[in-house]
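# nightly structure sweep
# worker-07 picked up a monomer target from the shared queue
# config: single-sequence mode, recycle default, output format = structure tokens
# input follows
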Amino acid sequence: MLCFVTAKDRLFNDVVMDMKREEIKFPGTMANAEISRYMLALVDTLWYLDGTKEKIQRRALNQSGSITRIPERFMNNYNGYNDYKRKKIKAPQLDSASLKTHVACLQTLMEQKFVSLWGDYGKDLEHLAVSMSEYAQFLDLSSKAQQDRQSLPHPVRQLAENVQVLHFNRGPKKTMYSLIEDLVNTKDFYEPIIFDECLHAASPFKNRTEAAPLS
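# output follows
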């Protein structure tokens, strides 16, 4: 009888093997069904993050202090299982609601007393949950800011934080362009002007360089 192993099954098995290698154990008195529930919570989280962890990590690097970095244990491992390219689907998108759901499941595991015996593994689990929670908060704030901009009577384009406007005094008006400039000042916006060098220039242009400002 053939047994079909899915990519998520492989992820589950690899997580179990890594935990055994580091001697991460559940209490011997705990029922198998309960252990499976906790393991599935962890595997489901890693499956959800597969292919999208880089987004959280980049944001954590760009906003140092506001978002916790994903621990190397989970950042450098458990990748390529949820292969959206092979399945020919769009790249997965992180959303606040899903992140919070997975964080809640991880917290249920971390609230268990035996996790305190897991040492660095337990701390990395906590940091992973914190990172996901902070990124969910970032998505919420970004969404609210976008909604606020769109609710304005005249929505504005988002500008970079360091953009500044510089004001310069108007320079002296060149005599050869004075007639055309005076004419432009009498016209409304987008009102066309048919330029006639004999009428609108102080004297005929000697070369293309003099005519360039009007081209």
